[in-house]
Amino acid sequence: MSGVPELAIDLFSDEALAEPYELYDEIRAVGPAVWLPGQAVYAFARYAETREAARDWETFSSAHGVMLNDIVNGATGGVTTICSDPPRHEEMRRVLRRPLMADAVRDLTPTLAAEASQLVDRLVEQGTFDAVSDLAQHLPLAIISNLVGIPESGRERMLAWASASFDAMGPLNARTQAALPLALEMIAYGNTEAVPPHLTPGGWAQMVYDSAERGELAPELCPSMMSGYLAPSLDTTVNGISNAIMLFGEHPDQWDIICQDPSLIPNAVNEVLRLESPIQRFTRYVTRHVEVDGLTIPERSRVMLLFGAATAMSAAGRTRRASTSAANASPNTSPSASARTPA
Predict the structure, then answer these.
(1) What is the tens place of the pLDDT at every residue in 9-32?
(2) pTM score > 0.85 for this model?
(3) Cα distance between residue 161 and residue 183, in whole Å
(4) Structural domain harbouring 100
(5) CA 68 → CA 7, 105, 320, distances in Å?
């Protein structure tokens, strides 16, 4: 390991998943790269090293999968956007991003605004609501399935699939093994049911197959690309909304500022995503021996990029979350607000 410091900690224990920031501090303090023997993976927790590794796809490859177990990596490596490198990554990304471009999303504004307005009116009338299940989960679930245009059968499984896809990211511990059947079920759904002629004409999923027919995409990639719409459109969005409510609850002065000047909302969204990353970690496969600040990371090893550590403040600087619980959220994601919230 050429001088790489070692820490005997488990980032996938229940306690670490619920509150990882003290462990993040410990990893950052030890060095730019740390060996975690329990998971047989190197960890980058500092901003500079994490950012550089995320940009250097030729050294830190995603094409071998970005999880911590061979089962999910074998099912997703090279055939999904997050588990691919250029040029295949760019090929898939060009197709997936078309309905997500600014002009296309702007056309959806009336639909999104109407759904959000109805939801807010209903929650205000209730008086109290659960920030995760009543608010954060509702909008993406109500909107995304229609936009993607998947068959009715399966839509009721979308939240379960999204959570399972995150829980299956880790090492082959009890949580990962429990989530694997559901995660693999989502992959099977994309291969057998979310395919023409069962897709809604004009929907995002049908656009993928149309692109393949035009020769813009290898046809065999179409089924696996459904996960590029289903899981990220749900769990990361749910986490982001939940975390925003949690952080504004902890910092009501910031909420007052937003209410007084709504033009600051885009900056506030970026800050929420920085402080509480919806995705805490992904791994990369190291294609060659590489030096990181004098420490050698060997070829064919795995590096875990701790996005949640690289962008967040230290544990000592964070407000304690007395009113929140990660128990109701997907355990392998960032902690989410789940307390009942005044409307």
Answers:
(1) 999 999 999 999 999 999 999 999
(2) yes
(3) 6
(4) 14-342
(5) 17, 34, 29
